[in-house]
Amino acid sequence: MAIPVQTFFLHPGATGTLQARIQQMVAEGVLSGRLRRGEKMPSTRALARHLGVSRLTVALAYTELLASDYLTSRQRSGHFISENAPAPAGFPPAARQERVDWARAIGQRFAGGAVPERPQDWASYRYPFIYGQTDPQLFDHASWRLCAVQALGARDFRAMTQDYYDRDDPELVEFITRQTLPRRGISARPEEVLITLGAQNALWLAAQVLLTPERTAALEDPGYPALRAILAQTRCRIAPVAVDAQGLPPEAIPDGTGVIFTAPSHQCPTSATLPMARREALLARARALDAIVVEDDYEFEMAYLTPALPALKSLDPDGRVVHVGSFSKSLFPGLRLGYLVGSEPFIREARALRAAVFRHPPGHVQRTAAHFLRLGHHDSLVRRIGRALTERRAVMEAEIARAGLTIAGVGAHGGSSFWMMAPPGIDTGALAETLRADSVLIEPGAPFFLRPDPPRGHYRLGYTSIPTDRIGPGITRIAEALARARGRG
Amino acid sequence: MAIPVQTFFLHPGATGTLQARIQQMVAEGVLSGRLRRGEKMPSTRALARHLGVSRLTVALAYTELLASDYLTSRQRSGHFISENAPAPAGFPPAARQERVDWARAIGQRFAGGAVPERPQDWASYRYPFIYGQTDPQLFDHASWRLCAVQALGARDFRAMTQDYYDRDDPELVEFITRQTLPRRGISARPEEVLITLGAQNALWLAAQVLLTPERTAALEDPGYPALRAILAQTRCRIAPVAVDAQGLPPEAIPDGTGVIFTAPSHQCPTSATLPMARREALLARARALDAIVVEDDYEFEMAYLTPALPALKSLDPDGRVVHVGSFSKSLFPGLRLGYLVGSEPFIREARALRAAVFRHPPGHVQRTAAHFLRLGHHDSLVRRIGRALTERRAVMEAEIARAGLTIAGVGAHGGSSFWMMAPPGIDTGALAETLRADSVLIEPGAPFFLRPDPPRGHYRLGYTSIPTDRIGPGITRIAEALARARGRG
Fold first, then answer.
1. Where are its TM segments located (chains A, B) (predicted)?
2. Which pLDDT band holds residue B426 (cuts at 50, 70, 90)?
3. What does DSSP assign to residue B87?
4. In A, which residues are within 8 Å of B133 by CB distance?
5. How far apart are CA A216 and CA A260, in angstroms?
6. How many whole angstroms separate alpha carbon B69 and alpha carbon B284?
7. CA B459/CA B437 separation, integer angstroms
8. What is the set of domains in chain B, with CATH numbers?
9. What is the chain B residue with the closest CA to A465?
10. Which residues on adjacent β-strands are paired with residue B384?
């Protein structure tokens, strides 16, 4: 590779002759790892012109660098970083000496929160019972590509490249209001919709607008771990509410709650679906508390066994439900595309906050999704995923029963995971470690709990990313590991 | 268009016969504007199966809807929303009755900040002297498209679709550390770089990590208006520092300042470039204050007249400079891609905050930019933009001189705008309104100032988006409007 001449820079403040400074510049580049062995240096003429020095100065510097074996020259093809050049130091060059006390300079700390349990290289495991990743076999890659190319076309170019400031792609918003939300029973105007960078971002925006250190947020326990990191930033008070097999019990939401966070379609991680009667009761409780409900409509489109129940938002004439939707699960997580639906005064604040934080989700991503949705590809993708998961889920159920494992929670309409319970005395954190060595990935349950001394016996088995024919052998390995752990216990 | 059957929904809580509820559902859809005249209804068979009711019930409902002219039927092709169906009400259906006191429910307010002066339909004006939008004629659309398609290819698919959690695309980070930052004289390791959703997002993250209500931020006055909205959220104290023709005077930064925000390459809006001596003095002042400097390396790539000076970050052995870069200006604003460079403890906190707020910028956008940069398209684009702007800037200078207008500030290395001064007594806010009616867009200067009673005589003329042959006539119109305003004044 040729090293672009623009990457060379003489620091005006440096001392020494021009020639020495050029030599030092190259040597530092090699030692810092920026210039690599075998890469082609600019010609003496080009470098001289770029640096504004005489060509002779550069030629003399190159000669010295040849002598010290930083460079080699090849007949008629110029100078290259030598294969014998010193290896990069592996630490920052000596000139850098950190003089800032970052423990003091950092005003607010955010690091140290929940870290995902899933290894980055999950795809290299044979039995990945993990949650929420795309199965590349199911995704309609060709159609997505066509939509992306269309969104890159001349007609859409202006829409894609303009800075919307605080606006969204009108085509995507229109599709969501006219096609997506009606499937959840929700009728909303464009002013009541805000596009977000996935559900995570939607929950973050809602929390920032609605909460203060004086307000109390009711959270499902166990629940979505990332929500805690989000709420930590608002410094609000947190009221954990234990969920049961039917999800969040409305009567258990304490007095004084200002905002209720719930995932009624598919509770995370127990998979419970909030029944219709509880939906009505939850809204009545919110009305009595004069509280706002933030509905994370998590995995509603994974209702492939029975139709999804209407969203809480659809049952809410008061405007007290803020609805969070996402395309990250049904398209792919790296897409980072979701939406908030709520009353106009709320959306106005969330939009202003979004404008300050990052303005808007990239225009091209919004327009690509709009085309994909409009052409019906999303619908067929959801149907295809539903068919595949119906099959996998049946295999999961059969294999779990065969192996004698215990299901603790399961979605009424489908979903993509089982919430499991290990026999008494088994710590699923240790179990997950053991299984990992056997190329099996499971998710320990403890990180989902809010309580200080969480139960250690739960685990979650996702089936979006494991091929059907590996489910049986994978479940067998889990059962064997459990038997060994009990034998030792 | 055929209306998908999935968008129909019977609210379980509703009263009335099934047939009446189906009629009401369709009528409400029409009145809310969701179902539009001429759209095709699902067949009675499909709707009956979807709703789980008998086909006869649906057929009877359709008959009633035909009678009330909500629907029409066409021989052999089914039912359609009638062309005589009632028009949408233009207000939410009566069932929605907002019962939330949002003045109370909103915990934190974000709306009401600086609104951009630029009209959304700027492209329809003949003389748009606006700032920061892409000229579609200059952008290398074909190459960007190829890179996007490559990033959508099978090889990159996993990289694009995976949820990185808090990581970035390693290919983009590598390019930035090895190719982009060296052009600014900066050497950084991948752990010292964080990809952001544009410069706005980078500044927001830095402000959140570094500032608290007890700390003081020094800001350039006049300065980048969006920075004030960002800092408002940290509730920090703000020390405005008046800039002069050479940018921020380091000696004027008050004692007690904890964080200094500056745009040394191209001050916004005065276009001033911080000279080398001031760069050294600024770092010395920061060292004396033990302050952090946030360097917005705004428009460094627009140095087409003389090479850019090295970034502050490159002159900083202490690690006290946080560097903000962006591809939004040199590629296109809707891309929303930038980066933060800083010491590892700082980047770690910014990364954790980013993970809570939105996880990471979309993978596909990162990978597309990585390809575009790696293949050298960005370099040639910057060169092409530089050539075009050199020409336009010369025409601007000649026309401004010819028309007798006064330049108040100009970038030493190039840039894309002039900071102008109207004759005494003229309010450029009113001037901009007058010119707008004449199809000329200029930016009034007052919104850039921090002081409570800002001077009203400045305005900014951008030349990225106006064709060269329209510059002369546009400047003439500005001069005429100024002459008329003085005649009245």
1. none
2. very high
3. P
4. 162-163
5. 9
6. 79
7. 17
8. 5-81 (1.10.10.10), 122-135+380-488 (3.90.1150.10), 141-376 (3.40.640.10)
9. B162
10. none
Q: Which residues of chain A neighbour B157 with C-beta distances below 8 Å?
A: 136, 141
Integer CA distances (angstroms), A241 to A219, A230, A261, B386, B433, in order:
6, 18, 10, 60, 56
Contact (CB<8Å) A364/B359? no
Task: Identify the DSSP state of A211.
Answer: -
What are the tens digits of pLDDT across the range B235-269?
A: 999 999 999 999 999 999 999 999 999 999 889 99
Question: ipTM surpassing 0.85, yes or no?
Answer: no
Q: Which residues of A touch B95 (CB under 8 A)?
A: 317
Number of CB pairs, chain A paired with chain B, less than 8 A apart: 350
Query: Rounded mean pLDDT of B404-425?
Result: 89
B interface test, pick of A166, A171, A178, A351 with most B CB neighbours within 10 Å: A178
Q: Using omega within 30 degrees of 0 as the cis cutoff, is the peptide bond preceding A452 cis?
A: no
Highest mean pLDDT among B61-75, B287-301, B304-318, B468-482: B468-482
Instruction: Test A163 with B292 for CB contact under 8 angstroms.
Output: no
* Selection from A417, A411, A350, A358 nearest residue A203 by Cα: A350
Q: What is the rounded CA–CA span in Å between residue A50 and residue A53?
A: 8
Q: Which residue from A318, A361, A379 is facing B4, i.e. has the nearest CB?
A: A379
* Whole-number Å distance between alpha carbons of B70 and B73: 10
Q: Contact, B216 vs B97, CB < 8 A?
A: no
Strand locations in B29-91, DSSP E? Answer: 71-74, 78-81
Residue with the two structure tokens 């950084």: B188
CA distances from A302 to A45, A226, A313, A331, A393 (A): 63, 21, 18, 12, 12
Strand-pair category, B71-74 with B78-81:
antiparallel
Please tell me the distance in Å from A72's CA to the nearest CA on chain B. 21
Burial class (CB in 10 A: 0-12, 13-18, 19+), B232: middle
Break chain A down into helix, strand, coil percent, rounded to 5.
45, 15, 40
- How many angstroms separate the CA atoms of A189 and A181, rounded? 10
Cα–Cα distance measured from residue B271 to residue A127, given in angstroms and rounded to the nearest whole number: 58
Of B167, B314, B379, the CB nearest to A4: B379
How far is the C-alpha of B108 from the C-alpha of B122, rounded, in Å?
32
Report how far residue B393's alpha carbon sits from residue B401's, in angstroms, rounded to the nearest whole number: 12
Higher pLDDT among residues A308 and B105, named by residue = B105
For an interface test with A, which of B358, B368, B379, B464 has the most A Cβ atoms less than 10 Å from its Cβ?
B358
Residues 6+ apart with CB under 8 A from B28: A187, B93
Structure tokens at B243: 């800039």
By the 8 A CB rule, do B297 and B340 touch?
no
Overall residue count recorded for chain B in this entry: 489
DSSP B346-363: HHHHHHHHHHHHTSSS-H
Mutate to test the interface with B, among A25, A102, A287, A343 (most CBs of B within 10 A): A102
Mapping DSSP to helix (H, G, I), strand (E, B) and coil, where does residue A67 land? helix
Summarised one tens digit per residue, pLDDT across range B112-168 is 765 555 677 788 899 999 887 667 777 788 888 888 888 887 666 666 666 666 789
The CA dihedral of B180, B184, B187, B188, to the nearest 10 degrees, is -60
Which among B485, B461, B458 is positioned nearest to B471, based on CA atoms?
A: B461
Which residue in the set A101, A189, A317 is minimally distant from B95, CB to CB? A317
Q: Is A5 exposed, middle or buried (0-12, 13-18, 19+ CB in 10 A)?
A: middle
CB pair distance less than 8 Å for B359 and A335:
no
What confidence score (pLDDT) does residue B162 get? Answer: 63
